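Schema walk-through. Below, the input block comes first and the output block second. Nothing else is stored per chain. Lengths vary across the set, and this one has 132 residues.
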Amino acid sequence: MSALNIVLKIGGSVVASPLNPRLILEYSKVLDRISMEGFKVLVVTGGGGLARMLIDCAKAINMSQESQDRVAIQASRVIAQLLAEALKPATPITIPRRISEVSKLLKRYNIVVMGGIRPGITTDTVAALATV
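--- output ---
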């Protein structure tokens, strides 16, 4: 990523515990302003309370740790989808599933939003890996 790029990690507990549409819209306004200043932004969202609730259910039905992680990844991707929709047309509404997709998307869009990518890796780690 070039020097004019920003990676922002938004914890799911911030926008999704409980889901807060107003806060999602406020984040979208701030991100729009940042992109208007010439920055390319990758936003990584966590799953927050939604992910925790789904993981609790997954544990209760004896899902493996890997399957619990997959459920949490989907929750983070739902939050990412909500933010991406609030940001369109500045961002693609298709949420990337791999970090390798991000640089190609940032050539076309000013903002890319993503969630988790694979079991065993937190969204904090996804954000850190994206800076490399």
